[in-house]
Design a protein that fits this description.
The strands form two sheets. Strands 1-2 form a two-stranded antiparallel sheet. It has a two-stranded antiparallel ribbon with strand order 3-4. The protein has nine helices and four strands; from the N terminus they run H-E-H-H-E-H-H-H-H-H-H-E-E. The protein is mainly α and about 270 residues long.
């Protein structure tokens, strides 16, 4: 088991995990601070010298950012399946360069800079070919209802999404049973979201954000249920081995009904809540 895997195993059972950068050579410590200042800032505020003192670490859900998924890229200009939508940085998938792993620095930092350049150029070319701005139309109906929608629905939806994504028993130590439980709950919430979510002005923005979180949670959970193996950051306690026949990316989408299918034109797989 890797050091990261061992740390996650400890965290998943509630045991504390600590880190210390004592193996960093003295001559590179200043360079480490310069290259990743955001990492050291909270430690400095807490009065911790990470090169000599241990400090607690915890697991943070990254979901579809930082290399573990995101908006599908369909061209070298970072175009997506949606005409006019170009994705870059954490919003875009990086599985083509990272696989099913996570983390920051090196290739991830290079991706942020490169994809921003490519996406910006692609968006500019797209816009130049359309002198009249395209109309914007919301996808689906969830989060678009008027003031008659329930004011507290957004908070309830966000809470449900957090319940089924944040705990390590849901996001890291997955099984068919836990994933099916989440699929059922999230799909049921979506079936009523169009009638519950909405509002005016700021409330409408919050409602639409809650709808987006719910949609993304459904795609991620359906995809995890469809991947019947352990691979990269995806851990199945009921299926701990990696299946060579599943060396492929999974695409997911859909609003009323979520679909999941292998990227290269294979037959579509549907996960249905029971």
């Amino acid at each position: 088991m890797s050091a990261r895997g061992a740390a996650m195993a400890h965290l998943a059972t509630g045991r504390p995990v600590y880190a210390r950068l004592d193996r960093a050579r003295p001559d590179i410590r200043a360079a480490m601070r310069t290259s990743q200042p955001n990492y050291f800032l909270p430690l400095d505020k807490a009065g911790i010298d990470p090169f000599t003192q241990k400090y607690p670490v915890r697991a943070v859900l990254e979901e579809t950012v930082r290399g573990t998924g995101g908006i599908r890229i369909t061209g070298t200009d970072c175009a997506s399946d949606v005409p006019g939508l170009f994705a870059a940085g954490d919003a875009a998938t990086r599985e083509l360069i990272t696989g099913g792993r996570s983390g920051g620095g090196s290739h991830n930092g290079a991706w942020a800079i490169s994809s921003g350049t490519w996406a910006g150029a692609g968006a500019a070319r797209f816009a130049r070919g359309r002198p009249v701005p395209d109309g914007v139309r919301g996808a689906g109906a969830a989060g678009l209802r008027g003031p008659s929608a329930r004011r507290q629905a957004s908070r309830a939806i966000v809470g449900l999404v957090q319940e089924h994504t944040l705990p390590l028993r849901r996001s890291y130590r997955r099984s068919a049973a836990s994933l099916q439980d989440s699929v059922t709950a999230l799909d049921e919430a979506w079936s009523g979201a169009a009638d519950l979510l909405g509002g005016a002005e700021r409330e409408l923005l919050q409602a639409r954000s809650a709808a987006a979180m719910l949609a993304e949670a459904r795609w991620a959970t359906h995809s995890a249920l469809a991947r019947t193996e352990t691979r990269g950051m995806h851990v199945r306690t009921d299926l701990p081995d990696t299946d060579p026949s599943q060396t492929r990316r999974l695409l997911s989408g859909g609003l009323g009904e979520v679909w999941v299918r292998p990227e290269h034109g294979a037959a579509e797989t549907r996960t249905v809540a029971s």
